[in-house]
């Protein structure tokens, strides 16, 4: 790799918790930060009502898949995407189409996911969550190469380490913080993925991307969870210069309960 072929590549992920309610935050952040790729989850809007024109005006291409009130994923990008696919199975009637969208940008495949939350451990949705992780690993095996550049990001609904929640003793057993979910997540990572935030911030505490609306002054009291992630294959992780949490969107007017995670590469 020579200086002439090296370029900056910035990617961000954000659970918007209703894109139409958070559009003021998104557009302001895009204008200020100009990421190459901006992944969104929980857009909560049917495709016919997705605010695509706002992204066009902002200078971004956007691809999306969603339904009214639930789930929904989208990717905005400065470069027109290639090879856009939806869902784990790639079928037109895939029930998971509004949870996964993949596309290629500057030769780098980006997979944006909204992993099922699970509700509670006795609920069938928790079994669905574990199955989803297993299906996702098989999707990686069948479709992608762990030896090539690839990014997986989104709201993954797992806090993988004790330091990724504000009260690990009390929260142990939660659907996003328990051994079964850790094992499912680790099996996906074992395909060949690195947690880029922990690559740059090993052991750092009080680094959270989600702060529950129901907890009074959760941001000020640092009562959060790190459940939004950017991971990549080693081929790309070696060129990752930084991965940071931007708390400003969580402190903006009418915020999402999540905030933005950003990674930058020289590729």
Automatic annotation (TrEMBL):
Site (Important for catalytic activity): 228
Record site feature (Interaction with DNA substrate), residues: 258
Active site (UniProt): 114, 155, 258
Endonuclease/exonuclease/phosphatase domain sequence ranges: 12-258
Cofactor binding: number and manner: Probably binds two magnesium or manganese ions per subunit.
SUPFAM superfamilies hit by this protein: DNase I-like (SSF56219)
Record-listed Mg(2+) binding positions: 15, 42, 155, 157, 257-258
GO molecular function, one term: double-stranded DNA 3'-5' DNA exonuclease activity
Enzyme Commission number(s) from the entry: 3.1.11.2
Coiled coil: none
Cited PROSITE patterns: AP_NUCLEASE_F1_1, AP_NUCLEASE_F1_4
Cofactor: Mg(2+); Mn(2+)
PANTHER family from the UniProt entry: EXODEOXYRIBONUCLEASE III
Family stated for the protein in its record: Belongs to the DNA repair enzymes AP/ExoA family.
Name recorded for this polypeptide: Exodeoxyribonuclease III
Organism taxonomic ancestry: Bacteria, Pseudomonadati, Thermodesulfobacteriota, Syntrophia, Syntrophales
């Amino acid at each position: 790799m020579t200086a002439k072929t090296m370029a900056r590549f910035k990617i961000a992920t954000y659970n918007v918790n209703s894109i139409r309610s958070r559009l003021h935050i998104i557009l302001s952040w895009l204008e200020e930060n100009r990421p190459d790729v901006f992944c969104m989850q929980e857009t909560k809007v049917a495709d016919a009502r997705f605010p695509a024109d706002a992204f066009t005006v902002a200078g971004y291409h956007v691809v999306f898949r969603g339904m009214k009130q639930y789930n929904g994923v989208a990717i905005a990008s400065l470069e027109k995407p290639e090879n856009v696919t939806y869902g784990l199975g790639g079928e037109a009637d895939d029930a998971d189409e509004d949870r996964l969208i993949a596309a290629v940008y500057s030769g780098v495949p980006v997979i944006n996911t909204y992993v099922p939350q699970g509700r509670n451990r006795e609920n069938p949705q928790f079994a669905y969550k574990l199955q989803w992780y297993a299906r996702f690993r098989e999707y990686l095996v069948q479709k992608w190469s762990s030896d090539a550049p690839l990014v997986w990001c989104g709201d993954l609904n797992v806090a993988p380490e004790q330091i990724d929640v504000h009260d690990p003793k009390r929260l142990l057993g939660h659907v996003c913080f328990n051994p079964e979910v850790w094992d499912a997540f680790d099996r996906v990572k074992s395909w060949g993925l690195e947690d880029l935030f922990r690559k740059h911030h090993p052991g750092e505490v009080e680094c959270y991307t989600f702060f529950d609306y129901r907890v009074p002054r959760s941001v000020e009291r640092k009562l959060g969870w790190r459940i939004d992630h950017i991971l990549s294959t080693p081929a790309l992780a070696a060129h990752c210069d930084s991965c940071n949490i931007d708390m400003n969107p969580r402190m903006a007017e009418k915020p999402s309960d999540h905030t933005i995670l950003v990674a930058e590469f020289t590729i």
